[in-house]
């Protein structure tokens, strides 16, 4: 029987090998995917979703300033602003494109655009032409390490021509905007425009924010001065948003977590109290993806505006004093022998606490363009300029005489001209005969002070004979004067205070001049510190402009609680017996309140009592026009120091009028100013007492702060409308 054979299907061996290899590869792939997903999945997921956290500090408005009666002096005026915040990784071309769009919506000043800005912009827009400005040889020098890459860019800048830098006006605005874009840190808002932003501009930008990446609209601020120029130089300046941190203090501020475009105090109170006025910045943590896009923002610290300063100044008294000075300057300038008179100063201080009630100064300034002169604020001159003060310092001379044993209370000298061999006779303006220390102060005897200085030096005066003194006598007198604050910095809480100038000659005649205030120079602030030390019985008080520091509150129109009281500081105690100081106090009172005193005419019949000392000093004109004269010009400085009431001092004052007149016959501007400011002081005190407002120390502090602030709001509103 024939069996039919079955056919076998034979799969080629090579095909089996192929199937096996495919199986192995798929198995390996699956295994690898398993490892990636199971073992390393979280790591890769984190890498894909990797973000970066960047903390940004946002500026806040500065603290305000008030006078001692809570009248607003410095505030923050809100401004509409257009800002730009650059993302990390934003390219320059992208910023230029945004700047081009924004330039069509706003007007931007181009004054700040520099030649360097133009060159950078040209290179940005003409990269190929810029490359051609570098030679192959120079590129090779870079490869060989002879030049740096940065050197090539400098060469490109240097080789850009004037013609290439010519930019059309429309494009200049783009450049000005781009300049602002590029000057800020990534993720930090940069002010593009905050001055004169019109409502139309603000609206247009707001409507087009979707097409302006990084651009936003917000509110900025500017300093507002309620009293215009009054004390403005003392209050200081704040840098603009364009200036940012001052270059000379850049490292200092950057080390304290400031940004380069932060606005800071540049001078005086604004600079001195920067840490307090600046406030606590808002901190925002921005979370960005790999492309630099912000995917989340978290507020770490809300931030708060700066703390407020309550100054010691009484603005009612300050304004009245400035008006008095201006009136006197105008009137006296009309006299025939006052061509050098151009300034006057008044400082009023609480002698018990060092609080500055008034710091007034005025001077004529000539406009460089028109050539016309106008009276400008010069309050800073009270600490930045010094003059010979004349007989006002004789209280220090008498007390130094007591201390050194050169005289005793009640010592008599015969007042007649001293004749020292080889020098002109030196005397008082009149021969007063035999007088004691009290009469010497009352009539302002020069001879009494000369004889005191001679005794301090341990010398012996013989008429028509040489006077031999030791140069150490100058140090003795100057060290003693320094106890009062004369010839040394007062320590006031303002920068750039000068200490005055000390004469370098040590001849006998110069020692006698020093004793009557006609040799070394002092500032008006030193003069008021000196007389305050006599008024309060021997304490040299540190003058200060800030009385309190207040915490900010949510309601921007109200004052917060007191964060810190500025306590009175005694810098040193006079090394004098109490009875000596009382003796000089008595002499000062005779000057103003007793017939024959040099200030009696101005204070003798007042309803209040004053202790004072007048001064006249021969000086040389060294003002702004001194270059117009080939030889030194003789002038007279006139001064007045004092305090009131004489029996219980609550205010001390110093009046200084440099270069008041020429010759020995002039005017009494310093005494007239002194009379008027004291009349004003006690008039204000009386008026406030009638209104039921409290008196503290000086009688010039008011209690109803809310009422004052309401009045101030009305004043400010009217000024803004103007």
Can you walk through the features of this model?
Pathway: Cell wall biogenesis; peptidoglycan biosynthesis. It holds the Pfam family PBP_dimer. It is found in: Cell membrane; Membrane. The protein is α+β, with helices and mostly antiparallel strands and 722 residues long. The chain has a domain at 318-690: DD-peptidase/beta-lactamase superfamily (Beta-lactamase, 3-Layer(aba) Sandwich). It is built from 25 helices and 20 strands. The strands form 5 sheets. Strands 2, 3, 4, 5, 8, 15 and 16 form a 7-stranded mixed sheet that branches. A hairpin with a 6-residue loop joins strand 9 and strand 10. Helix 3 (92-103) packs across helix 8 (169-182), helix 16 (394-404) runs parallel beside helix 18 and helix 16 (394-404) runs antiparallel to helix 22 (578-593). The N and C termini lie far apart (132 Å).
Characterize this entry briefly.
The chain is of the alpha+beta class.
Portion in helices: 25-40%
Query: Judging by the overall fold, what is the CATH architecture of one domain?
Result: 3-Layer(aba) Sandwich
Number of continuous helical runs: 25
Q: What are the segments in which pLDDT stays under 50 over at least 5 consecutive residues?
A: 701-705, 718-722
**Coarse structural class:** alpha+beta
Largest sheet: 7 strands, mixed
CATH homologous superfamily designation of one domain = DD-peptidase/beta-lactamase superfamily
Strand content: 15-25%
Distance between the termini: 132 Å
Instruction: Write down the CATH class of one domain.
Output: Alpha Beta
Provide the residue-averaged pLDDT.
87
Looking at the structure, what is the overall shape? elongated
The CATH topology label of one domain is Beta-lactamase
Number of strands: 20
Pfam family, one: Transpeptidase
Organism: Peribacillus butanolivorans
Catalytic activity: Preferential cleavage: (Ac)2-L-Lys-D-Ala-|-D-Ala. Also transpeptidation of peptidyl-alanyl moieties that are N-acyl substituents of D-alanine
Subcellular location: Cell membrane; Membrane
């Amino acid at each position: 029987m024939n069996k039919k054979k079955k056919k076998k299907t034979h799969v080629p061996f090579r095909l089996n090998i192929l199937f096996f290899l495919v199986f192995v590869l798929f198995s390996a792939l699956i295994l690898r995917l398993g490892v990636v997903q199971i073992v390393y999945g979280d790591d890769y997921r984190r890498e894909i979703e990797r973000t970066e956290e960047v903390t940004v500090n946002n500026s806040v408005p500065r603290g305000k300033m008030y006078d001692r009666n809570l009248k607003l002096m410095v505030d923050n005026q809100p401004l509409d602003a257009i800002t730009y915040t650059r993302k990390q990784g934003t390219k320059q071309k992208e910023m230029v494109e945004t700047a081009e769009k924004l330039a069509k919506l706003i007007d931007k000043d181009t004054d700040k655009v520099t030649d360097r800005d133009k060159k950078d912009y040209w290179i940005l827009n003409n990269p190929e032409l810029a490359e051609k400005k570098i030679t192959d040889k120079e590129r090779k020098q870079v490869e060989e390490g002879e030049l740096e890459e940065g050197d090539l860019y400098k060469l490109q800048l240097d080789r850009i021509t004037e013609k290439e830098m010519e930019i059309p006006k429309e494009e200049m605005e783009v450049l000005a905007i781009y300049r602002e874009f590029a000057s800020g840190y990534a993720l930090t808002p940069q002010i593009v425009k905050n001055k004169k932003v019109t409502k139309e501009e603000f609206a247009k930008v707001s409507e087009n924010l979707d097409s302006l990446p990084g651009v936003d609209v917000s509110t900025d601020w500017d300093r507002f001065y309620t009293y215009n120029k009054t004390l403005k130089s003392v209050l200081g300046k704040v840098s603009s948003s364009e200036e940012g941190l001052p270059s000379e203090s850049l490292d200092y501020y950057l080390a304290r977590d400031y940004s380069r475009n932060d606005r800071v105090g540049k001078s005086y109170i604004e600079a001195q109290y920067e840490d307090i006025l600046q406030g606590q910045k808002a901190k925002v943590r921005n979370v960005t993806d790999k492309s630099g896009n912000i995917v989340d923002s978290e507020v770490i610290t809300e931030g708060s505006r700066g703390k407020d300063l309550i100054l010691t100044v009484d603005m009612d008294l300050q304004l009245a004093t400035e008006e008095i000075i201006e009136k006197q300057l105008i009137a006296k300038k009309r006299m025939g022998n006052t061509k050098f008179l151009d300034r006057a100063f008044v400082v009023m201080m609480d002698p018990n606490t060092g609080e500055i009630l008034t710091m007034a100064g005025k001077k004529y300034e000539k406009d460089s363009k028109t050539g016309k002169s106008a009276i400008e604020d010069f309050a800073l001159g009270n600490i930045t300029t010094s003059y010979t003060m004349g007989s006002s310092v004789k209280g220090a001379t008498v007390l130094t005489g007591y201390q050194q044993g050169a005289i005793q209370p009640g010592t008599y000298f015969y007042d007649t001209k001293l004749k020292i061999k080889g020098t002109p006779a030196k005397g008082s303006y009149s021969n007063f005969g035999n007088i004691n220390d009290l009469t010497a102060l009352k009539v302002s005897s020069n001879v009494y002070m000369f004889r005191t200085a001679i005794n301090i030096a341990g010398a012996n005066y013989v008429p028509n004979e040489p006077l031999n003194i030791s140069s150490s006598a100058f140090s003795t007198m100057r060290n003693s004067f320094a106890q009062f604050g004369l010839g040394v910095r007062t320590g006031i809480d303002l920068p750039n205070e000068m200490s005055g100038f000390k004469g370098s000659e040590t001849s006998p005649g110069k020692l006698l001049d020093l004793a009557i205030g006609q040799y070394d120079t002092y500032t008006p602030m030193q003069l008021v510190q000196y007389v305050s030390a006599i008024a309060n019985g021997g304490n040299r008080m540190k003058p200060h402009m800030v009385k309190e520091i207040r915490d900010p509150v949510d309601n921007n129109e109200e004052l917060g609680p007191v964060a810190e009281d500025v306590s009175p500081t005694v810098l040193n105690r006079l090394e004098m017996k109490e009875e000596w100081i009382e003796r000089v106090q008595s002499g000062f009172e005779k000057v103003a309140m007793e017939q024959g005193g040099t200030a009696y005419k101005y204070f003798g019949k007042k309803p209040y009592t004053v202790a004072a000392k007048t001064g006249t000093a021969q000086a040389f004109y060294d003002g702004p026009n001194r270059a117009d004269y080939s030889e030194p010009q003789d002038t007279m400085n006139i001064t007045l120091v004092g305090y009131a009431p004489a029996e219980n001092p609550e205010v001390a004052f110093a009046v200084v009028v440099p270069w008041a007149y020429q010759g020995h016959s002039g005017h009494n501007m310093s005494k007239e100013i002194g009379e008027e400011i004291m009349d004003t002081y006690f008039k204000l005190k009386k008026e406030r007492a009638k209104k039921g407002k409290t008196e503290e120390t000086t009688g010039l502090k008011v209690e109803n702060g809310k009422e004052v602030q309401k009045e101030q709001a009305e004043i400010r509103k009217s000024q803004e409308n103007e």
